[in-house]
Amino acid sequence: MWTYIGNKNNDFWIWTVVFDKDYKYFEIGKRDEETFWKLLNQIPTAKEYHTDGYRVYENLRNRKKGKYNCTNWNEGLNSFLRSKLAMLQRKTKAYAKSIRALYRALALVFIRWNLLSTL
């Protein structure tokens, strides 16, 4: 999910993962392999990974590409986050002033709505 910090020229991505529908993870960074690997190292190993067609997933083993039910859970999480945080809503004046503020805001939403992973 795209967002920006400070101004629209400073874009960041919130990478989200839904693991077995009950466990959710996120990482904030650029839209690159470095951020992807940071996130992948946080999540448990899965039999298969459902992804969209973005190029950084190409080296992922046991990858299923396409809009399956599993990717819809992740899209649902993104929609939920947008509804709870004004700084993530489209066409709004709210935005994160720093990456630290964005992490804190996301962490508070995960705590408040019991989205934290306990694996």
Q: What is the compact description of this entry?
A:
This protein is α+β, with helices and mostly antiparallel strands and 119 residues long. The two termini are 24 Å apart. Strands 1-2-3 form a three-stranded antiparallel beta sheet, with helices on both faces. Strands 4-5 form a two-stranded parallel sheet.
Descriptive key words:
single chain, globular, 119 residues, 3 helices, alpha+beta
> Could you spell the SSE succession in H and E letters?
EEEHEEHH
Distance between the termini: 24 Å
Give the DSSP E fraction (strand runs of 2 or more residues).
Answer: 15-25%
Residue share in helices? 25-40%
Report Rg.
14 Å
Low-confidence sequence ranges: none
Q: Spatial order of the strands in the main sheet?
A: 1-2-3
Q: What structural category do the secondary elements indicate?
A: alpha+beta
State the shape.
globular
The overall average pLDDT, rounded, is 88
Number of strands: 5
Number of alpha- plus pi-helical segments: 3
Q: What profile does the largest beta sheet have?
A: 3 strands, antiparallel
Would you give an account of this structure?
With 119 residues, the protein is α+β, with helices and mostly antiparallel strands. The model has no long low-confidence stretch (mean pLDDT 88). It is built from 3 helices and 5 strands. A 3-stranded antiparallel β-sheet has the order 1-2-3, sandwiched between helices. Strands 4-5 form a two-stranded parallel sheet. Helix content is 32%, strand content 21%. It has helices at 33-40, 69-84, 99-112; strands at residues 2-4, 11-19, 23-29, 49-51, 63-65.
